[in-house]
Amino acid sequence: MIRNLREIYQYRALLFTMTARELKARYRASVLGFLWTFLNPTLNMLVFAVVGQLMGAWQPKYPFFLFVGQLPWIYFATSIIAGASAISDRRDLLTKVRFPAQVLPSVVVLTNLANYMLALPLLLALGLFFGDFPTWHVVYFLPVVLLQTVLTLAIVYAVSAFNVNFRDLQHIVANVITMMFFLTPIIWTVQGKPDWVQKWVPILNPMATFVIAYRDIFYDHRVPDLQAIAAWGGVSLLLLWVTSLIFESRREEFAELV
User: Fold this and answer.
1) Are 251 and 102 in contact (CB under 8 A)?
2) pTM
């Protein structure tokens, strides 16, 4: 893991350049361009707000409640799905030059993290629309998003490395992420659910812990469960160490297999 992080730092200029290029290219051919950074999560929020109401979900300021959980989920899910093919789709780079392969999964995660950050003003604006003003609890945001990034990068390292050999993995990942969405309290809340749901969902689902933490910060204005966040933070660091070793052990094969 240390070697991977050292090399990422060494190639940080390349990392930031490729990230900026990805951000520019994402909506280059569209009429609305960069506005889709705001429109995509907004349209999703409106759809799920209607669906949630039809399903009987009820929370005060429900669109804001939904949006707070949806933004980090989009960051996570898009990173994992796109990250699965981060290596296998870049044969042009891996076969023509001596290219640091670990930059490619990192670009995917950093690009989606940038989109998440760019959408935060919309989150704050929606909160103000509902009369929900930020409080000092926002100081917990950066540690939470940092630990979520560690978890996301760890998973992307693993799926991108294994997808080089097993191309069906990217389709499996997409379906797992879809199922995981409904097991994460985004359109629903653990409050009021049976005790086993309140206990085991955050333990078994790391994104449940992070979504609940974001809701504590922006929606409920309270200190998030630091013990749960620290626990999953430790697991994420361990997972990053393990997946970095896996990625490192397979890196020499990438150019031949893609």
Assistant:
1) yes
2) 0.89
55 CB-side CA count, 13 A? 11
> pLDDT tens digits, residue range 163-220?
888 777 888 999 999 999 988 998 888 877 777 777 788 888 999 999 999 999 999 9
Residue 209, classed as helix, strand or coil, is helix
d(CA 35, CA 38): 6
CA atoms within 13 Å, Cβ hemisphere of 152: 30
- The pLDDT tens digits for 225-247 are 999 999 999 999 999 999 988 88
User: What does the chain come to in residues?
Assistant: 258
Nearest to 150 by CA among 214, 244, 226: 244
The Cα 217–Cα 234 span in angstroms is 21
Residue type for position 223: V
- φ/ψ bin of 253: left (φ > 0), alpha (ψ from -120 to 50), beta (otherwise): alpha
Neighbouring CB atoms inside 10 A of 106's CB total: 25
Rounded distance between C-alpha atoms, residue 256 and residue 152, angstroms: 26
d(Cα 107, Cα 51) in Å, to the nearest integer?
33
The alpha carbon of 158 is separated from its chain's Cα centroid by a whole number of angstroms, namely 15
Cα three-residue angle 150-12-79, rounded to 5 degrees:
40
Q: Residue 95 and residue 253: Cα distance in Å, rounded?
A: 11
Q: Is the distance from CB of 109 to CB of 79 less than 8 angstroms?
A: yes
Please state the domain extents for the chain: 2-257
